Amino acid sequence: MEKTLVILKPDTIQRGLVGEIITRFERAGIKIVAMKMMAPDELHFHKHYEGISNLISRWGEDIYNITLSQMTETPVITFVLEGVEVVAHVRKMVGTTDPKDSAPGTIRGDYTHVTRAYTNPLNATLPNILHASGNPEEAEQEIKLWFTDDEIYSYETAHSPIVRGRVVTKKREDKK
């Protein structure tokens, strides 16, 4: 089963949207296998944003510093989700990084509206609710950065066969 990392950013915590966001993933049948609140230091965020995501390389030092400022306003809540092709599914649920491109029905489309075009010239933070891993390789690296193996749990949910599909072991015979 595939895993992905989600980080609820300070704007989510400040707005009191934590429960609503987590509920959306649970309602989709995605399983939470790890979760914690923490206040990482700059080195941890540098490993995440530049070491894995190449934020400085792609957007520059100023955007990195603004992002770092935003991410250290409050603690963050980070969790690992597990499911079938969960990385792509969570990305679809979350919407695009720039809220203006996120469709209604996505998390960012429903809870954000400020855009990079507005925030970047002001050197303002981009309140876009959360981070979600971009691909399975990135997810694996991010999970290792944020969680130890002992913090990730394996368990079955009551609804797992319903959400993931029941495995048919033998052909059913027609009843006459």
Please tell me about this protein's structure.
- The structure is a single chain.
- It is built from 10 helices and 4 strands, in the order βααβαααβαααβαα.
- By secondary structure, it is an alpha+beta fold.
- The protein has a single domain (2-164), classed as Nucleoside diphosphate kinase-like domain (Alpha-Beta Plaits, 2-Layer Sandwich).
- It has a 4-stranded antiparallel sheet.
- The radius of gyration is 18 Å and the shape is globular.
- The N and C termini lie far apart (39 Å).
- The relative contact order is 0.22.
- The model has no long low-confidence stretch (mean pLDDT 91).
Number of helices: 10
Number of strands: 4
SSE order, one letter for each helix or strand: EHHEHHHEHHHEHH
CATH class: Alpha Beta
CATH superfamily: Nucleoside diphosphate kinase-like domain
| Sheet with the most strands, sense and barrel status | 4 strands, antiparallel
Structural class given helices, strands, pairing?
alpha+beta
Question: Span from first to last CA?
Answer: 39 Å
Shape: globular
Q: What layout of secondary structure does this protein have?
A:
Layout: E1 2-8, H1 10-15, H2 18-27, E2 31-38, H3 42-52, H4 55-59, H5 61-71, E3 76-83, H6 86-94, H7 107-111, H8 116-122, E4 130-132, H9 136-146, H10 160-164
Antiparallel strand pairs: 1-3, 1-4, 2-3
Helix pairs in contact: 3-9
Compact overview of the structure:
With 176 residues, the chain is α+β, with helices and mostly antiparallel strands. The protein has helices spanning 10-15, 18-27, 42-52, 55-59, 61-71, 86-94, 107-111, 116-122, 136-146, 160-164; strands spanning 2-8, 31-38, 76-83, 130-132.
